[in-house]
Amino acid sequence: MTQRLNALQIAPAAINAVLGAQNYVEQCGLEHSLLELVKMRASQINSCAYCLHMHTADARKAGESEARLYLLTAWEESELYTPRERAALRWTEALTRLSEGAPSDEAFAELREHFSEVECVNLSVAIGTINIWNRINAGFRTRHPQDRNRLAAA
Questions:
Q1: For residue 115, how many C-alpha atoms fall within 13 Å in the half-sphere facing its CB?
Q2: Residue 54: which H helix or E strand, with range?
Q3: Are 42 and 96 in contact, with CB atoms under 8 Å apart?
Q4: What is the DSSP secondary structure assignment for residue 5, as one 8-state letter?
Q5: pTM
Q6: Residue 141, helix vs strand vs coil
Q7: Average pLDDT over residues 72-79
């Protein structure tokens, strides 16, 4: 798969605008571990290899367990996620899959049970931001780093 174009080189102001939103998200007060799960789940849904590679590595560096990373696609069937994380993951799926319908009242009620109003907004901005990154990186086929040693052993 060949990268289509380099968005940063072609439109640095656009990428810097998205980086501004990302910087806000990183400083908004939501737990780093929660944000990484949200970024990974949206990236799984959007099939963004570049973002999955990045956020899996970031989550591991932050101490995330391998089991929770492996089971993220089946989070609803696993007891490894807290009720707060589950509410965030459900909201992530609802906002990432808007074409399938508006987020349900049940998903919002679950969100409100575990997040303050400002946290709901900040989480929604975080979800929107990772979806922007997914669309840029998947759309332009941004290549993730290759682990040549691992590929050679496979």
A1: 27
A2: helix 49-61
A3: yes
A4: -
A5: 0.90
A6: coil
A7: 96
